[in-house]
Design brief:
The protein has 17 helices and two strands. It is an all-alpha fold.
């Protein structure tokens, strides 16, 4: 069994293990691919055929958007399990990258069937690559290594370099030239990132190289039956031509079942010690906070993109720019603020805020951003346009919230997870993001049926309220962590 550790003295990448550079650039280009598509997806689906779009209505486009972004994360759960038992995380990264690139190129075909199949390939590939990349980052550090949180923050900068430049490049190509050219460009960059990983993966040494747990006969049966179930379900949906709205409703029920089964299995299993059970309870609390945060935050590609395209004056100093450019603001703020937050967490030392308290601050940021947008919607009225500063302030608040929750949550999963299910536990965290993405996509379906000031106001107030609840339970939940910080 692999030890999944790196020498403590390895400080060749800005004071961190050299392997972090390999994962940094792999995830950077994967995020370029993902956010390049996300920046354009709802605009492409609602654009008329004459504008190189699919001509779908907003409720249908919102449902597809929610399904895609949710699947991109829900597949992290089985992908993490497969990596833990069958492939190892390094091979999972390669498989994921190939699937993503195939899906990118498949979106060039101007038809709804290939389009949906391509989105499914990207979602499955993202589940493999993102889960295994992130899990392997944790393997680079020994238990108790003070550099771990800072390492995840640095890794997060790599994520946001890709996410930041993608809307600028793909957004321009898609909105000013042709959406399908932008999808092809995303595929080329994914292949570039995968090539870099293959050429430099030696720096990872044994981190994620082999499965952490030897797969048994029961595991092989689960893999076979699970794969067959997914193929049968997808085939039935395609053959019966099930309406997208019904698929979305069914997927929502599947998400609820997946959450209940996952945590029931973890909490009721006899394979974990009492101390591990307490930490799994903490993971459940963080799961709920993360899911609710991302249901707000991930509307960047749905309701906020529609507001940017329809209700915002997209000009600076008289120069117009594509509405998709707003989705780069989050990453620009990450570049500016992430080093400061990484320094702050290290500087605080023993006085550092608890993980749950940081989650509550994250929810305050997400909710506050939508309260700003409520005021923007009032200012815009039914058909007017407002200054880009409204969305800029919203993204600033969301970014502050994200920095308090997302990298902290990733790091917490690697510290709280029982080692034998490290990949699966990271998949559980991504499942929370899946739930959030699904809810965010469904909310976009109400964009034209509920007054925007009310829609944004409800979302903002909800985020603030959940943040207050998380703050109230911070101390008792922290005690369950058993000294893990």
């Amino acid at each position: 069994m692999a030890t999944h550790t790196m020498p403590r003295e390895d400080t060749s990448f800005f004071g961190h293990p050299r392997g972090l550079a390999t994962l940094f650039f792999t995830e950077m280009w994967e995020r370029f691919s993902y956010y390049g598509i996300r920046a354009l997806l709802i605009l492409y689906m609602t654009a008329a055929a004459a504008q190189h779009g699919l001509g779908l209505d907003v409720p249908t486009a919102g449902a597809i958007y929610g399904l895609f972004t949710a699947c991109a994360y829900i597949f992290s759960l089985p992908a993490g399990w497969i990596a833990d038992r069958f492939l190892g995380h390094q091979r999972s990264v390669v498989l994921g990258g190939l699937l993503i690139a195939a899906g990118n190129f498949g979106m060039i075909v101007p038809a709804i069937g290939p389009f949906l199949l391509s989105l499914l390939c990207i979602a499955i590939g993202t589940g493999f690559l993102k889960t295994s990349c992130t899990t392997t980052v944790g393997f680079l550090y020994r238990q108790g290594d003070a550099r771990r949180d800072a390492g995840f923050s640095l890794y997060y900068v790599g994520i946001n370099i890709g996410a930041g430049i993608a809307p600028l490049i793909c957004g321009y190509v898609g909105q000013r030239i042709n959406y399908r050219y932008a999808f092809a460009l995303a595929g080329l960059f994914m292949l570039a990132g995968l090539t870099q990983f293959v050429l430099t993966r030696g720096s990872l040494r044994d981190a994620g190289k082999t499965p952490a747990v030897a797969a048994g006969a029961g595991d092989r049966k689960k893999l076979l039956y699970g794969s067959a179930a997914v193929l049968i379900a997808a085939s039935l949906v395609a053959v019966l031509a099930v309406p997208i709205q019904q698929v979305a409703d069914g997927f929502g029920m599947l998400l609820v079942v997946a959450v209940l089964v996952t945590f029931a299995g973890l909490l009721l299993s006899k394979d974990y010690s009492r101390e591990e059970k307490k930490r799994i309870q903490v993971i459940l609390v963080l799961f709920l906070g993360s899911a609710l945060f991302f249901s707000i935050f991930e509307q960047a590609g749905s309701t906020l993109t529609l507001f940017a395209d329809r209700s915002t004056d997209n000009r600076v100093f008289g120069i117009s720019f594509p509405s998709s450019y707003f989705q780069s603001l989050n990453s620009i703020f990450i570049y500016a603020l992430a080093p400061a937050f990484a320094w702050l967490w290290v500087r605080l030392g023993e006085r550092d805020l608890s993980v749950v308290t940081k989650f509550s601050i994250g929810l305050f940021g997400a909710g506050g951003g939508f309260l700003v947008m409520m005021l923007a919607a009032i200012a815009a009225g039914p058909s007017g346009k407002v200054s880009p500063m409204w969305l800029t302030v919203c993204y600033l608040l969301h970014t502050i919230g994200e920095l308090c929750l997302s990298p902290v949550g990733l790091s917490a999963m690697t510290k709280l997870a029982p080692k034998r299910i490290a990949g699966m536990t990271m998949g559980v965290f991504f499942l929370s993001i899946s739930v959030g993405n699904f809810l965010g996509g469904r909310l976009a379906s109400f964009y034209e049926s509920i007054p925007l000031d009310k829609l944004f106001g409800y979302v903002g107030a909800f985020g603030i309220a959940v943040g207050v609840i998380m703050l109230a339970v911070s101390r008792p939940v922290t005690r369950l962590m058993g000294g893990v910080k």
